[in-house]
Amino acid sequence: MSVSKEEVKYIARLSKLYLTEEELEKNTHDLSSIIDFANELSSICVDNVKPTAHILDIQNVFRKDEVEPSYEREKILQNAPTKDAGCITVPKVVE
Amino acid sequence: MREDYEVIIGLEVHAELATHTKIYCNCTTEFGSDPNTHCCPICTGMPGTLPVLNEKVVEYAVKAGLATNCEIARFSKQDRKNYFYPDLPKAYQISQYDLPLCKDGHMDVTVEGKQGNYKKRIGITRIHIEEDAAKLIHDAYTGDTLVDMNRCAVPLIEIVSEPDMRSAEEAVAYMQTLKSILEYLEVSDCKMQEGSLRCDVNLSVRKKGETKFGTRTETKNLNSFRAIYNLIEFEANRQIEELEKGGVIYQETRRFDDVKGIGYAMRSKEDANDYRYFPEPDLAPIVLSEEYIADIQNHLPEMPHIKKERYVQMYELPEYDAEQLTNSKKIANFFEETITHWNNPKAIANWIMGDIFRKLNEAEIEIDACPIKPKDMAKLVELLDKGVISSKIAKQVFEEMFESGKSPEKIVEEKGLVQISDESAIKEIVTKVVENNPQSVVDYKAGKDRALGFLVGQVMKETKGKANPKMVNEMLLEILNQS
Predict the structure, then answer these.
(1) Hey, are the CB atoms on A14 and B274 less than 8 Å from each other?
(2) pLDDT at residue B269, as a whole number
(3) Which end of chain B has fewer CB atoms surrounding its CB within 10 Å, N or C?
(4) pLDDT score of B271
């Protein structure tokens, strides 16, 4: 396995995912084969290739600093499962 | 702090840019509106939206870089910094990782050290552009956290210093100089109390002579010079005490409560700092031409240290005064406008540096919110210079002007504060005071000069401070010396 169970647990934690032992097993296996597949790229020599900053050959896409109306607040909040006082509410995040 | 330790400080300063719109959409950046009214699908991270970079953000960042002697990148890109927190609707912040817009700069600062002032050069590692996050409000009643996304994607520059500072004084001097440069450039309004200029302090300590750095802590989001100073003193002492006890310093993120004067660690294990940066696929690289950079360089405004020289030359102000007046562009503007109304630069400088600074500090406001306008400030000095009011009365009028915002003429008129310069009126009072205080006359004749001061005081008391002090003095001496 190219990825350890510990690494998968760590990545899961960063993504706020909680895996059962069974899921951990499966994900470690799946992620390993994905990494192995992607690692085939490492066999290509890129010594004379410039690092890619963007996949398209474009640069300097800018807009003018001019204000346009924002959305109605009701529209912005319509997908929020819980709201209060014009805000989205989430479980308390700071001790 | 103990003499045998050295403190190593580096600052990461975030400045909100004074653009009209956000960094990737056309929503306004205006401060203080109702929550979630400056939002659109782009700045709230809706799927399928495409950010487009505000051209002013690049211009302002390049200005800041040139003014701090940075090298400007001809090729730069933006990256995603991934972290999961409710202040970030996309679950990533667009920032710059390995190719920032500006790097390798420096600033020369004047430090008010305990043994006098000295100059020091502080290195600037980099300046990059990024987006601000939402404001989280903690509701004590429901226990929920409220999310206001108006601040989401307001453009920021982050200015990262080298770990070159060795005391709280040096850190404050660096921060003051940086604030004044950003204000002069007009790239940020630098309102620390509104959070548009804030600072993270990286700090470690080591025994003097040691060459390796100690483990550092990072204290987030300090928003006043006082808080920066207090935090540094607190954190340096905390680390030294810990080491002296045989303890260890953990690399951790901390907060500082300036009211209580204590810092505390945030949960460090859980929020593992693994941001998994990768190039932002939705934004094109930024490629700057020589002409673009030269054009910005040629249009940089007069910087504080140049203005300071000019004040010394043109207005014959002492170096110290010139420095105090030019630290902030707003103060310099206030001074320059005041002297156009009444040409007495030194007296006006004294009022600004003394009474105005004191009142602004007490009220915790900046000079643009000062109830006294330059025109009225000039008028007050004019009334004083022309002898219409005494200096004692002038102080009283000043206080009243600050409270009410009224013009000095109006206050003087309403309260009847015009100085008494009528010779016969003063003579009458002086004569009465001399008659009522025979002992002081005897004392004066016996060579006790203090007796004269006492008599002057009595006359002032009788006239509620309105008598022309010069005339009172002259008349008293005349009477005392002839009797």
Answers:
(1) yes
(2) 46
(3) C
(4) 52
